[in-house]
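For reproducibility, we list the full input for the adenosine-5'-triphosphate complex.
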Amino acid sequence: MASALEWKNASAGYGDTIVLENVSLSLTPGESVSIIGRNGVGKTTLLATAMGHTTMRGGEVLLDQQNIATLPPYRRALKGLGFVPQEREIFPSLSVKENLEIAARSGYWNDDRIYALFPRLRERLGNMGNQLSGGEQQMLSIARALMTNPSVLLMDEPTEGLAPVLVETLQDVIGKLRDEGALTIVLVEQNSRVALAFSPRTVVMDKGRIVYDGPSQTLRDDPERLTKLIGVAE
Ligand SMILES: Nc1ncnc2c1ncn2[C@@H]1O[C@H](COP(=O)(O)OP(=O)(O)OP(=O)(O)O)[C@@H](O)[C@H]1O
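The corresponding predicted structure, in tokenized form, follows.
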């Protein structure tokens, strides 16, 4: 099947530093994949390279089979790449409603669908971005990306720093997104339990390369192998 998003022999980094080395990864439309790996192996850089926030040294990034590697980030967003950054980056002096409105583009995701998915945000519509808990900020960051009606959603460690109960809420939300089936989703996740539960396919990165790309079940069934791959038992 044709790919929705593909990194093709992608090498990329920051200035003279190369972080990603010849990475190839392809997702079919509607597919979800989890990316795991220890700190600093290049998971964020993989997403940043799709978004155009790194210096590419070779290879291509294809969205709907079109090479987007030379486009600036905003053009990639307009073409259907949605991004939920690790830092959340919501606007602190805009209300929840304004944070959502500023991103809105017509399509499947509208106010009603967003509030059905995130009832909590409906209750906080008038709150400013800086008057939200960490969990609410994370929800707003995902909601804002959805309001752009992307075809591919890249999420960078959405559960980071959240209390266990909020991790569960968020897991429910991203599970619903996955089950709707229309979105292609790349989830970068430190929490390997969350990552392996989220998608049937998991990619493990190490030192800027892909060292495993296969069923999540295989890693769930073989904790020893998982530990070897990511160096942490969870
Ligand atoms: N803006 C930047 N400028 C220079 N080097 C960077 C920059 N961002 C990341 N790096 C370096 O690139 C390498 C990969 O970092 P990256 O953030 O992609 O890893 P990661 O797997 O997402 O880690 P973590 O799980 O800690 O977020 C690291 O060595 C990091 O120091």
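The chain has ten helices and ten strands. The longest strand covers residues 17-27. Both points were considered when choosing residues for closer inspection.
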